Amino acid sequence: MGLTQHTVRYELDLFAQEGGEKHRNRDGWGILFAQDRDAFLFREPDPAASSELAKMVVREDRPCKHLIAHVRRASAGKPALANTHPFDRVVRGQRMAFAHNGDLPGIEAREDARALIGERIGDTDSELAFLMLLQRLDAADASTPLDRHDIFGRFAAEIRELGSANFLFFDGEHLFVHADRRKFETEDGLTDPREPGLNIRSFEGRHSGQSWNTRGANIENITAPLHLFASVPLDEEGWEPLARGCVLALKDGAILARTQT
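Request: output the structure for the sequence above.
Response:
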């Protein structure tokens, strides 16, 4: 989510159900509220429905400019705190964070990944992809948001050849989004990966002062611009599916760049 400062309230288990997680248990949840140079980050490797911490997060109001919420279904890496998204690192005084929906089989065999395996806290392909991205950004000395947008987009285009790579990356000031394909959950099980992997809903100037409410999440008194991203549309109005390879950079609710890789 990229937004000017808003207060967002979540009920994570209901939110997960609206995101298509109706038929399988969740293996953890995490939510990051970014505020200037730092962020509140709450994570647990257990279902949000039975979590006292999740209830506390819902009760407290935390205005933020960028927010990342992730409900995990374990594929690579067991259910554990170290494997729970969003992952974060402090780089040059900036809190950076990363969340991934998808699978990246074979990533550990890549030459540029092997040296970073020992830097992981957990054992997921997602955290390894995050470390690889940080290394790319550092090597390129990508100091401007458009430079980071370009490197992020090229990295995502390369990595999605391994599997599904729906990425949210926060660099301390900007939110970068890459849409790919995803598996859809049905009564009969999971489908093969297909588009769309992410959807966007945008609130422009005409929406200022309005509210947005859906099962599991609500935002009061919207100050446009505001952009929401979700694996599955969370209500019936205004969502646009993002094509595979769509890359966006946002700051304080404004879209700085949107490209197709």
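The domain at 2-260 is CATH 3.60.20.10 (Glutamine Phosphoribosylpyrophosphate, subunit 1, domain 1).
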